[in-house]
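Appendix B, record 7
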Amino acid sequence: MKEFFGLVRRHMMATDISRLIDAVIFNVLITNVDSHAKNYSIMLKGRGASLAPLYDLMCGDEWPGITKNLSQDIGGQRRGKHIYQRHWRRMAHECGLNGSAVIRRVQQIAEIVLSNLESARVMVEAMPAGTHPMLSSFTSAISRRCADVIANLRVNDNNDDGHAQPNVADDMAPGSF
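Structure tokens (predicted):
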């Protein structure tokens, strides 16, 4: 993640930093275990570059035989349902982002996904082959992940071995992130 954000910081606009953190959060929320570096693409325009829209999205939690580990770790954690506030803060610190701003954004996007999940399911259902039996499984998995992420944001007192985890300074980068 540090390399992703460094690349964006060096070659793109500040708005792309926000777009990248939103994409990372979204991939965690939809349980996308296939969000490899190649899935965070760059569009070249004239003399500039920007992040491409997300593509090749999947809900990995519902596919048997597929790893439940994310392609990139979030503050040292690759298991999406085990990402806590401390992991988001650690990732923010590593990437030169404001930890509190990242935590707020994770909460916001999780709530947005939850509030739009049913209407998204209805839209997909109206598409050709949209009534696939897995659709309700995906909807349930994403709903569970969003609820887990929101609940895990409230946990910041211990790290994985049970010892107290110091808070990472939130003044690592100016601006919202």
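Remarks on this record: Residues 160-175 have pLDDT under 50 and may be disordered. Residues 99-125 form the longest helix (27 residues).
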